[in-house]
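Task: encode each sequence below as structure tokens.

Item 1
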Amino acid sequence: MKAPIRVGAHIEGVHWVAEYAEATREIRVFREGRELDVYDAPRSMFGQEAEAGSPNEADNRAQEAALLASLRRYVTEREAEE
């Protein structure tokens, strides 16, 4: 089983983490170490690279960047709701 991709960022003074599990295609969001939400990853999030075979270093960085962008978008939308 492949290890989940995990990224974190400090946004507005709060530590956020997103974790993508390829097996379930879900993104878990943590705020200050506590799980806050789970949602399905967008189908286009990692493109066809994930199906093309063994990922290289650039593919891994691209996946982390996509997950970080998703996390930032999630936080922005959540803050707008509150």
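Item 2
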Amino acid sequence: MEKVRECRFFLVRVADYERIPELEGLLFCLSAFLSAFRSIGNRLQGVAGKKYDKQARRSLTLRMENHPRIGFLFGVRDVEVHGDGTTIWPRFRIVGAGTVKPGPLELHFFPRMSSDVRVIGFHFEGQRPDQNLIEFCHDALNDFEELIRKAIV
């Protein structure tokens, strides 16, 4: 459960940096969240390996890998650590020109039309554009806690 708390800590920081907005801090905390999230799976496998036989451990591994959110985040973490990094995309809405000055996220992602767009969050590449990154991670963490309760019983 220590890694679950660590995940929650970094996920709150991701949300904080999204609100500020500060992209570099958001990406650093997202990377930390993903590493801690994967560690939950590794530790759970270790506990299951001591408590159950090889087949039960393999079954647990398959449940994690095949879970739509948990497995997805495992893959994202692997790309973050062993590949070219996590790809996230801005979620945005179109606004009337000149309503509010563009912020750093609008200038970063939409430099040519920053006055017409507002960044309202992020989503992972490979997920629906309306699937908020923070909500997705939160739901995946809740799914993991449920899986842990079932596995450790």
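Check on item 2: The first helix runs from residue 2 to 19. The beta strands are 88-94, 117-124.
End of task.
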